[in-house]
Amino acid sequence: MKYKRILLKLSGEVLGNRKSGDSIDPAVVAAIARRIVRLANAGVEVAVVLGGGNIFRGASGLDGGTTRTTGDYMGMLATIINGLALQDAIEAAGVPTRLQTSIDMPRVAEPFIQRRAMRHFEKGRVVIFAGGTGNPYFSTDTAAALRASEIKAEVLLKATKVDGIYTADPKKDPKATRYETLTYADALRLRLKVMDAAAFALCMDNRLPIIVFNFFDENALDAAVRGEKIGTLVTD
């Protein structure tokens, strides 16, 4: 494996089942857990940040009259629900896991403590970071960039529905082309929506490479960690 320590950013939607309408499908979560366990068993130190959009998305709550601050806190709690589901599935697959949250709830999970997270990696545990940054107005992409920087991850793996970053939405524009590589500055200048500006800026400041790849390709995650050319690489 090229990367020894990674942070995997997953959207909450990947845990659900569109056909049944379930926001969390145990079979889907188990399949995701098996892919993470495969990396852990290969000696990779894995951290995960989950979104909460399958349950509640803070920004969309504005349309229903929810204030942005309240909506964002609701979204943070949704990521903790997702984190508990993934933690349970990973441990069922045989790898010890710790869930750390930015919002204190000691009966549910550990508080985020950087040194404790590093100790978990030393003991071969997968660490899930939930609750976003703990502050409204910041996305889980920003939380992923922040936590990846704090744990000194070698790469941030951003899982999406398409195989990289395109010049336009490939589902709407057949002429859209995929970038193989991008600089942080170009990503910010082009205002690419695959991650928010704060996340790109954090990665740029800490020289943390980002790989954007298609999570629904069963082999893409392993290929990215091996260092194969997959998706789009954002670097300096």
Q: Which CATH class?
A: Alpha Beta
| Number of helical elements | 7
Secondary-structure-based class equals: alpha/beta
CATH architecture: 3-Layer(aba) Sandwich
Uncertain parts: none
Please give the alpha-carbon distance between the first and last residues. 22 Å
Q: What coarse outline follows from CA principal-axis ratios?
A: globular
Average pLDDT figure = 93
**Order of strands in the sheet with most strands:** 4-3-5-2-1-6-10-11-9
The total tally of domains equals: 1
CATH topology grouping: Carbamate kinase
Percentage of β-strand residues: 15-25%
The fourth-level CATH homologous superfamily is: Acetylglutamate kinase-like
Give the topology string: H per helix, E per strand: EHEHEEHEHEEEEHHEHE
How many individual β-strands? Answer: 11
Major sheet characteristics:
9 strands, mixed
Which bin fits the share of residues in helices?
25-40%
* Assembly of the depicted chains: single chain
Question: What can you tell me about this protein's structure?
Answer:
The chain has helices spanning 26-41, 68-92, 114-122, 140-150, 184-189, 197-205, 220-226; strands spanning 5-10, 45-50, 97-101, 110-111, 126-130, 155-160, 165-166, 178-179, 181-183, 210-214, 232-235. The protein is α/β, with parallel strands linked by helices. The protein has a single domain, classed as Acetylglutamate kinase-like (Carbamate kinase, 3-Layer(aba) Sandwich), CATH 3.40.1160. The strands form two sheets. Strands 4-3-5-2-1-6-10-11-9 form a nine-stranded mixed β-sheet, with helices on both faces. It has a two-stranded antiparallel ribbon with strand order 7-8. Strand 1 (5-10), helix 1 (26-41) and strand 2 (45-50) form a beta-alpha-beta unit. The longest helix has 25 residues, at 68-92. The radius of gyration is 17 Å and the shape is globular. It starts with a strand and ends with a strand.
